[in-house]
UniProtKB/TrEMBL annotation:
The gene is aroC. This reaction introduces a second double bond into the aromatic ring system. PROSITE patterns: CHORISMATE_SYNTHASE_1 (PS00787), CHORISMATE_SYNTHASE_2 (PS00788), CHORISMATE_SYNTHASE_3 (PS00789). Belongs to the chorismate synthase family. This is Chorismate synthase. It catalyses: 5-O-(1-carboxyvinyl)-3-phosphoshikimate = chorismate + phosphate.
Amino acid sequence: MIMTLRYLTAGESHGPALTAIVEGLPSNIELCEEDINRHLARRQLGHGRGGRMAIEKDQVRFLSGVRWGKTLGSPVTLSIVNRDWENWEKKMSPRAEDRVEGIAIVHPRPGHADLTGMIKYRHDDARNVLERSSARETAMRVAVGALCMKFLKSLGIEVCGYVTEICGVTASTECADYRERFARAENSPCRTFDADAEKGMIAAIDEAKAAGDSLGGVVEVVVLGAPVGLGSYVHWDRRLDGRLAAAVMSIQAFKGVEIGLGFEAARRSGSQVHDEIAYGDGAFYRKSNRAGGLEGGMTNGEAIIVRGAMKPIPTLYTPLETVDVRTKQPFKATVERSDVCAVPAAAVVAEAAVAITLAEALLEKFGGDSLEEIQAHLEGHRRHVQSL
Ligand SMILES: Cc1cc2nc3c(=O)[nH]c(=O)nc-3n(C[C@H](O)[C@H](O)[C@H](O)COP(=O)(O)O)c2cc1C
Ligand SMILES: C=C(O[C@@H]1CC(C(=O)O)=C[C@@H](OP(=O)(O)O)[C@H]1O)C(=O)O
């Protein structure tokens, strides 16, 4: 696979800041901080979030790669300050002399990275694990995704995500229009488009909170306007379906990914799965879109549809059994502060994961150093498709 877009994030959940370096975006994408802050604010919303979101007000700062409202083509460095750091300065200090005794976390939480991380990195304090395994990292992933979305938008490609299910309460599929779904879901408490189902979702979250429990759910991300032929069938790691699945599965607490019909395709016969091909208005199209816009690892010109399943949050206010790593005696797992349900926030993270993967694939096929060059390459391809 050709490396067109690379990014690295860094930062502990309660450290001073999160940072990312993004390399490979072309010059001349119009960009301001608000383009990113808008998405950071969306990620902070949602019924079921815990106390941390009342402390943070995520805002990005460009440290390189942007001048006078446009990308330069050089690496873009992003920074987001953790406001909570003020409360953790000593506990998170890099200086050995600031060490605070007696605060080690020794009751690892089932379902989190705590115990395995302690064994793997030889830590005697789960804090050294949870600081980076925390989904605080997703704030920066959303910032990188917002950059990619701005790039995609300038090529006529839109990415939108919303919640379709929270712990078995499912949004009705009556509203089939993806833009309408997205518009309805924006700013709704559970980021879903079905107001009736949402009442049930809110009740389920409140009930779980009262019981000291937590909930997961399902998010759906749709890409509109993607050209035919992103990704490839020629090698396993160039298949776009596999790359999208990896990107969405890499989000903290995600345990399943489906494209189009997903697992349902395995239960149906071929005639009920494959989308018939037709030609009209000067272009090929599919009569249905059960494949979710991907065939043979490539975009086929229909909307891309990716769903991700998120498990319930591992930190429970009514904690599960664990073991004290020092005494090896049974103990209740640690709980400091936690979300009860973060599925609405995860829909925004999933949008980012998809947008980053799409931007990579787009740069592979239509690459260039400036936005104008890439736009011209894409226009040429679209003209070719229209001429068939
Ligand atoms: C947006 C978001 C917020 C999350 N908030 C919490 C939280 O408050 N408490 C918690 O224990 N886990 C939370 N998680 C889930 C953990 O980060 C995740 O379960 C953990 O990293 C272990 O990874 P795994 O579940 O992928 O195995 C959150 C995940 C996401 C995507
Ligand atoms: C900080 C965020 O999410 C955090 C993700 C998280 C976890 O374990 O993944 C645990 C919680 O951290 P804290 O103990 O500081 O409240 C969440 O708040 C965020 O989304 O920005």
